Amino acid sequence: MKRLSLILALSALFALPAQALDYRSVSVPAAILYDAPSSMAKKLFVVGRGYPVEVVVNVDNWLKVRDSSGALAWIEAGKVAATSKHMLVVKAAQAEIRSAAEDGAPITARAEKGVMLEWQETLPNGWVRVLLPNNSSGYIKLSQVWGV
Questions:
Q1: Is-above-0.70 flag for pTM?
Q2: Angle 24-80-135 (CA atoms, 0-180°, nearest 5)?
Q3: Would you say residue 5 has pLDDT above 60?
Q4: 52-75: buried (b, 16+ CB within 10 Å) or exposed (e) per residue?
């Protein structure tokens, strides 16, 4: 009987709808990431405006977030905005930005790992349209960035 209850409980978990990932960007010039949801907690590091994070948990005025390295930390909710520019981080050693969303399109720029690009649009064919720091736009493979 216990085994049946366990199976039913597990099947109920798998039946839950998948939730979309909640990516946001830091909206202030500098924000502190903490190891717990309190300004009295240990300060881990400081991040700047536009730094992308994935919201994992929302507790009162604090957000538990994950960054592109997979590290978890806490940030004050007011320091992060869903409506600010949506930034992505290049995760490939060197990513190619192309003039069109296809492998054969001319390369217009390259971006090193860790460079932030502004998200413009996700295309259904595995590409993302991005805005580069010089305000030109291009297309990058979804597999080469984090934050979408």
A1: yes
A2: 60
A3: no
A4: bbbbeeeeeebbbbbbbeeeebbb
Q: Which two tokens stand for residue 129?
A: 């349209």
Average pLDDT of span 112-118: 92
Residue that has been written with the tokens 């390295």 in this structure: 69
User: How far apart are alpha carbons 25 and 10 in whole angstroms?
Assistant: 34
Query: How far lies 79's CA from each of 24, 51, 144, in Å?
Result: 10, 11, 27
Q: Give the Cα separation of 103 and 45 in Å (integer).
A: 38
- Catalogue the E-assigned strands of 29-123: 30-34, 43-48, 52-59, 62-66, 72-76, 80-81, 87-90, 94-98, 107-112, 116-122
Is the pLDDT at 1 greater than 60? The verdict is no
